[in-house]
Amino acid sequence: MLSSIQAFDLLVPSRLLFGWGRRCELPSMAPLLGSRCFAIVGSQTLLREGLFAEIRSLINTASNVAEPPQIISREPLVEDVDQAVLRARECGADFILGIGGGAAIDLAKAVAAIAPQDEAYSVIDYLEGVRRELPLVQPSLQTLVMPTTAGTGSEATRNAVISSVAPRYKKSLRAASMMPDIALVDPELTVTTPPEITLHSGMDALTQCIESYLSCRASSFTRPLALEGFHHAWTALPIVMREPSSRPAREAMSFAALLSGISLTNSGLGMAHGVAAALGVHAQIPHGLACAAMLPVALQTNLECSRPRLQQLDVARRGPFVSEPGSAEALIEAVISLCQRTGIPQRLRELGVSVDQLNAIVTSSSRNSMRANPRPIEDPELLEILSRAW
Ligand SMILES: [Zn+2]
Asked: pLDDT tens digits, residue range 63-94?
């Protein structure tokens, strides 16, 4: 019997290029976006190994890279955005190149969004739930993003996560206009990612695929993408940890991360990401690690309401040649075992969270992610869940 397809919206980059070594196509891509490029580079490693020099020379054949590039080696703070916006305006940039992990790409998207707005305002004035929450009236500058890690999927999302130290928060700048114009995903750029970042970002991609698959806002379009991404991430993550230079494993992880970004931006996430945002704010736990540590707890919390979908994930995990039906409990056990094998802490106290921080963690959990969880979780229940997980 046919079931009805619910209405959905889909937002993706205007152009997606995926493939090993495809950074060499930059000379033909850059002129499509503008003539003055301001680059945001996310990794010292990239500079050390001469990769950025290579990329810059590829861009320079067609247009100018503003000098010197902005380098970011932490999750972007409000002042990082304001400072980079100033520089982008000063050099008259008409397009922004973001190259690096999620932090660099988020910063690039934020700069592209804020630079054309009224000069009287800071990025703070546009962040969700902070101050004025002004709308982004002017369209973003053109953006081309190239991820060097396989994790956040930021190359295909419409938000940027921006933090503040005093007061402490981690908030999103979000608008449909922030979707990158071109996402160029060259998995070869991820080969030199250090093991710990490979693991944390890989677990982030895996969590994003699972949460966007289970999300109450997922659509008939996003669910198959999330399931496909989950299959790739699950299969490739152990291989990429053992053999960091494996081309098929790096390709699979980059593909999973891209699919996770497309799904999550169109479907939302869930409890693991909701709490992970607060763990970043209050205990400075890296995003991917926080997501991975929360994933088993989130799956157990959603077990009864998501049983058929968890069974589907279990089938996807075991691949096409297993005939038994999937089991939700087996999937959760497998996730716990993956966390144990890769050294992801199972308890909040092992992550350095103190018990008296739990109330604040509940309060600062991301409402946006919590609203997409398969079932509603009110604050008192979340506190109970986190107390058990402590
Ligand atoms: Zn994430």
From this structure: 667 677 888 888 999 999 999 999 999 999 99
Ligand 1 center to 315 CA (angstroms): 23
Ligand 1 center to residue 235 CA distance, Å? 19
Binned at pLDDT 50, 70 and 90, residue 12 comes out as very high
200 Cα to the center of ligand 1, angstroms: 10
Q: State the sign of the Cα–Cα–Cα–Cα dihedral 278, 284, 288, 292.
A: negative
Query: What angle, 0 to 180 degrees and rounded to 10, lies between the N-to-C axes of helices 307-318 and 195-214?
Result: 140
What's the rounded Cα separation, in Å, for the pair 365 and 275?
Answer: 5
34 C-alpha vs ligand 1 centroid, how far in Å? 30
Q: What is the model's pTM?
A: 0.95
Pick the CATH number of 15-189 from 3.40.50.1970, 3.40.50.2000, 2.60.120.810, 2.60.40.1120: 3.40.50.1970
Q: Is residue 53's pLDDT more than 90?
A: no
CA of 108 to the centre of ligand 1 (A): 17
